[in-house]
Amino acid sequence: MNLASHPVFQSLAPVFLLIAAGYIAGRRGWVGQGAVKDLANLVFLLLIPALLFRTMSTVHIEQLDLRPIGAYFTAAGLLLAVSIAGRGFNRRSVVLALAGTFSNLVMIGITLVGLAYGQAGLVTLLTLVSVHALLLLTAGAVVLELAAARELAQQGGAAPRLVATAWSAVKGSVIHPIPLPIACGLLFAQTGWTLPAVVDKPLQLLGNAFGPLSLVLVGISLVHSPLAGQGGLALRVALSKNLVLPALVGLSAWLWGIDGLAFTVMVVAAGLPTGANVFLFAQRYRVVQELTTAITGVSTLLALFTLTLVMSFLSSV
Fold first, then answer.
1. At residue 170, does pLDDT exceed 70?
2. Burial (CB count within 10 angstroms: exposed 0-12, middle 13-18, buried 19+), residue 40
């Protein structure tokens, strides 16, 4: 089969060409660093909600299979725990463990899965997206607070309020422009109604704009990812994220008896590069901020090769 006509190439090439276009735009200064935040707000507060609500507005709950979600988080939770245990229980260790387990399901994953596996694959991915941040980020917030409390206690300070922090993390993950429109779309679908064309068409156009703009933003962000002096550890964490996690998810899914498209989408989701949300933890807890940014950049660059490997393997079995 000609490389240009291979399904994996046809799915990955548009994704990484748009990321490359964003990188060029960032390097040339066509988009100033101050404008990136405004564009990111446009993507997260308008384009993503439109896409997610419209996609899920025709999905009935009885059509959803939640077993792939269980398989995914069994593997992600195991890798998170092993990573923390291997480096010691402290803030640095927890943030690095999150960097090795938190996938960029939205900015890269939605477009890639939509191109590669169509609407059915996208529904499977969005089911994962709806709880991904809630489970991993809430777990990360709680474990980070425990680690911070332990470090503070060792210094003779007072421990922070763990319950309040956990509740804040849960609330922030639910009232969020990603899981909220998914939930609203599902609720709308259960009514049996259909969106009128005058509403559906604008939502479709907004959703169509999400893919290219989000990928261009990923490319622009790579321009501002400092890699100097961070290469060794950043590469190890990125390799763990891009290759170890999908291998574990694949094994977990097999043990759960999952096959077909759901198996493929879960493994590809696990093989996506590190999501930018991890940096928010590094920033909040003032630990390994530059390293976390470097991991995100290295993981994204590596994904060109590792996702090709993962998706080619999946297409051959």
1. no
2. middle
DSSP letter at 275?
P
Least confident segment among 10-19, 30-39, 42-51, 85-94:
30-39
Distance of CA 159 to the CA centre of its chain: 31
To the nearest 10 degrees (0 to 180), the angle between helices 91-99 and 67-87 is 140
Query: How far apart (Å, rounded) are the C-alpha atoms in residues 58 and 35?
Result: 35
Closest Cα to residue 128, out of 67, 80, 82?
Answer: 67
Using CB atoms within 10 Å of the CB of residue 195, give its burial: 0 to 12 exposed, 13 to 18 middle, 19+ buried. middle
Q: Which residues of 55-79 are buried (b: 16+ CB within 10 A; e: fewer)?
A: bbbebeeeebeeebbebbbbbbeeb
- 266 contacts 68 by C-beta, under 8 angstroms: yes
How far apart CA 132 and CA 72 sit, in angstroms, is 10
The identity of residue 151, as a single letter, is E
Query: Which residues, listed in sequence order, are joined to residue 274 by a DSSP beta bridge?
Result: 103
For residue 280, give the CATH number of its domain. 1.20.1530.20
pTM: 0.86
Tell me whether residue 196 is in a domain. Answer: no
pLDDT, tens digit, 9 for 90 and up, residues 48-101: 889 889 988 888 877 778 899 999 999 999 999 999 999 888 889 999 999 999
Structural domain for 106, as ranges? 7-34+66-184+208-316
For the chain, the residue count is 317
Q: Which of 81-85, 128-132, 147-151, 247-251 ranks highest by mean pLDDT?
A: 247-251
Domain count, the chain: 1
CB 238 within 8 A of CB 295: yes
CA distance 317 to 315: 6
